Amino acid sequence: MARKQAENYEEIRRRIMACAATEFARQGYAATSIADLAKANGVSRGLLYHYFASKEALLQEMLNSHLDMMLDAANTAATNGVTAQDRFRSTIRTIVGINAGSRDLQVVLLHDLQNLGTAERAEIVSKQRRIIAVLRDLIRDCDQTGHINSRTLMAQTMMCVGMINYTYLWYDPAGPVGPEEYADMVADTYLAGLNAGPG
Fold it and tell me: What is the predicted pLDDT for the residue at 28?
């Protein structure tokens, strides 16, 4: 007989994903067993399988959910402001804020994506590229000197992405520089360099 779905089914799934992200970030996806995940969540292995068919399915949904949320937020932020610079700042603040509140997911996304199958991995990468495209278009619009071209646009974009995606290695959002201040530091530094022109 099939197990009856709990009224708070989706809430429990979200809680399991958050806990699993912490475990994957702490010891790596490959080294984390279903038994580890069940213990960390305070449930049986059987109950865990009620919510997720496999460890890979858990990883896949975890990353898809995170990137869906980030993409929606980035698209919204990219329309928030009168000037291109305003919209760029809004988007940087949004992405930095999300990253600051989801360090474990950032670690898993950057280190454990290869554990998904080819098709599942391609779906995740597609969403990452769409988020990067939001920044790419904003950077192109912010270029007041006209020195960015088709050859350098992606390099310019990924340089910016590097300033906000690898903060998990060193940045403490509870430290002396909060996420919004750090986002403004990134935007100020990047825009100043962008519009200083070549040379």
Answer: 95
Cβ-Cβ contacts under 8 Å for 44 (sequence gap 6 or more): 38
Report residue 161 as tokens.
């992405």
What tokens were used for 198? 């070549």
Q: Is the dihedral of CA 27, 31, 33, 35 positive or negative?
A: negative
Q: Identify the architecture of domain 54-194 in CATH.
A: Orthogonal Bundle (1.10)
**Residue predicted with more confidence, 77 or 8:** 77
Closest CA to 160 of 127, 199, 197, 131: 131
List C-alpha distances in Å: 63 to 18, 25, 57, 122. 11, 13, 10, 12
The residues, any chain, with a CB within 8 Å of residue 46's CB and separated by 6 or more, are none
pLDDT band at 22 (very low <50, low <70, confident <90, very high): very high
- CB crowding 138-171: b at 16 or more within 10 Å, else e: bbeebbeeeebeeeeeeebbeebbebbbebbeeb
DSSP state of 168: G
Q: Where are the domains of the chain?
A: 54-194
Q: Minimal CA–CA distance to 134: which of 106, 107, 94?
A: 94
In the block, residue with structure tokens 């009856």 = 4
